[in-house]
């Protein structure tokens, strides 16, 4: 899908706040509110916008501990990796999963209310997936930045810095 400058502007704006109305967006993009609605619908239908979410303050809902976990597997057999990926994706406490290069095979971002909850989750991973060789855990002391925004360059050839 080819994105024009209006699409790119809209993508940057809705990533900042998906709750903006088409009228509010039209004030920043030189299009009518109805044109904004059509473009956003098309971007959703074509999968460019994967979903609209609310960003919740974890401290206000009791999930104040963030664990960054490096996970190693014994063997990288496709069927074993597929089972593990599916299991990881289904766990509510696991916010993000990255399949990575380097010493670890996966990096996980886990939000849990306490270390007991985290420990129980990791015991389940190891118990249900014998292919997991080892894991290391880092506990986030504070959050400097949190986000999922993907910078969209203003034109198709530009690079965002």
From TrEMBL:
InterPro entries from the UniProt entry: AsnC-type_HTH_dom (IPR000485), Dimeric_a/b-barrel (IPR011008), Tscrpt_reg_AsnC-like (IPR019888), Tscrpt_reg_AsnC/Lrp_C (IPR019887), Tscrpt_reg_HTH_AsnC-type_CS (IPR019885), WH-like_DNA-bd_sf (IPR036388), WH_DNA-bd_sf (IPR036390)
Domain HTH asnC-type intervals: 3-64
Keyword NAD: no
Keywords for this protein: DNA-binding, Transcription, Transcription regulation
PROSITE patterns (alphabetical): HTH_ASNC_1, HTH_ASNC_2
Organism superkingdom: Bacteria
Presence of keyword DNA-binding: yes
Signal peptide positions on this chain: none
Cited PANTHER family: LEUCINE-RESPONSIVE REGULATORY PROTEIN, TRANSCRIPTIONAL REGULATOR AZLB
The protein's name in its UniProt record: Lrp/AsnC family transcriptional regulator
Organism name: Luteimonas salinilitoris
